[in-house]
Amino acid sequence: MSHNLYSAIQRSLHRDPSRVILQLLDGHSVTAGDLDRDSAILASVLAASGVTSGDRVSAQIEKSRMNVVLYLAVLRIGGIYLPLNTAYTDSEIEYFLTDAEPALHVCSAQRAAHAETLVDRVPGLTVMTLGDDNGSLFDAFQAASAAGNQITTVVDKAVDDVASILYTSGTTGKPKGAMITHGNLVSNAQMLTEAWGYTADDTLLHALPLFHVHGLFVALNLALINGGTVLLLPKFDPALVLQGLPHCTVMMGVPTYYTRMLTEPAFNREATAHMRLFISGSAPLLVETSDAFYERTGHRILERYGMTETGMSCSNPLHGERRAGAVGPPLPGVEVRVMGEDGSELPRGAIGALEVKGAHVFKGYWKLPEKTAAEFKGEWFITGDMAMLSEDGYISIVGRGKDLIISGGLNIYPKEIEDVLNDQQGVIESAVIGVQHPDFGEGIVAVLVGAQPLDMAVLEAVCREKLAGFKVPRRWIQLDVLPRNTMGKVQKNILRDDYADSFKS
């Protein structure tokens, strides 16, 4: 039996080939049969371009029908899919491509010129462009379709074969590639199907990006494996969400989505009457947001917990108490434990380091065996989050052991930003922190020490050139010195306290 994720998806597609799987805003729909055929056609194009089983295929493209088809085509031929945030800059893309060494990089026409400059540095690299109805890869797809070229087979894969590499920012400043296996993705989809009661009768309002674990591996995979319909929005837009809600049953989002929906007067019980489930993740959901949402709609948001390396690990129950401020019990098949500094497991009610174990836990970091080894204790993965396990089995995330900022549902490590700032003339040192933001969950604050008054506008421009927009600080502060402890370590906790109100109105 093949453990290829596409095999599991294909079984669902074959149950009813006439069923609408993707519903697009322009009124077009894609049936299960269409999706299976289109992925077979594009698979033939990928093979003709030299992509073979085990090769990486990177993609920095806008969310679209063809984005979904590309993902499935890569899985079908046994490739390793590498989705990249569309906000990444040229310098960031250069790092990802030279590190991952993909056989094929797919990007927008606007990005192609820079990607082409990397061909000599990445062995065997081919660059192609793709939009929803344009680009060199789309043209090749159209030609293959006209010629009747398809690869209808699905390459056999073992449970622990890598299906995707997702880059996550690292404390060293260099992102690291988490290797996600076919077994990881199938098991996580099965867990969530059971936990959330997901069926082919569900229609998912999909407003998340397709380069993130939440939008790709949680939302899209869950819908495809169960044969449900996906209303594929190009991006999150409150007006589009309001338009789509009467036709959907499930919505997944980050807390920012829900805080923004609450500012819409038309977002009420009537607008959400057809919905059965709202799910939130990727960042902590404030109790105030949860309560306000329930008061407005009558729906209690189901908050869950996961990360790039594990997919989903915990979830509040579909039936039972959805506890605001908690991420629920572990999902079926997942084990969790809370550990003390001495390496012993703590009793319930105590706060410590959260570790998880299960078939959903990733294989390791791409080309980083030592980093991989450091993050595991046997089969237990060290999440880096601080948590408490209640007497009745609910996990609450109380902080992060790692210096991580989560803004708008996206993970940001300060070290990456600090490295850019510290390289600029006049900057002696910097400390980047996250503080509460009413819209994004956390907003980024840059605290700097300079030899003279610093031009913050110039520093911001440099950050925008070198970093994706979501990593650029939103507030800039200059101090004479940074607070330090007796060991000389910068006390970011003091900075977070001092500037906690940075984004309060």
Task: Supply the key terms.
about 500 residues, eight-stranded mixed β-sheet, about 30% helix, Rossmann fold, five-stranded antiparallel β-sheet, GMP Synthetase, Chain A, domain 3, alpha/beta, globular, 15 helices
Topology summary:
Layout: H1 5-15, E1 20-24, E2 29-31, H2 32-48, E3 56-60, H3 65-76, E4 80-83, H4 90-100, E5 104-107, H5 109-116, E6 126-129, H6 136-147, E7 162-168, E8 176-181, H7 182-196, E9 203-206, H8 213-226, E10 229-232, H9 238-244, E11 250-253, H10 255-261, E12 277-280, H11 287-297, E13 302-307, E14 311-315, E15 335-339, E16 351-357, E17 364-365, H12 369-374, E18 376-377, E19 380-389, E20 395-400, E21 405-407, E22 410-412, H13 414-422, E23 427-437, E24 441-450, H14 456-466, E25 475-479, H15 492-498
Parallel strand pairs: 1-10, 3-4, 3-5, 5-6, 9-10, 9-11, 11-12, 12-13, 24-25
Antiparallel strand pairs: 1-2, 7-8, 8-17, 13-14, 15-16, 16-19, 18-19, 19-20, 21-22, 23-24
Helix pairs in contact: 1-2, 1-8, 2-3, 2-6, 7-8
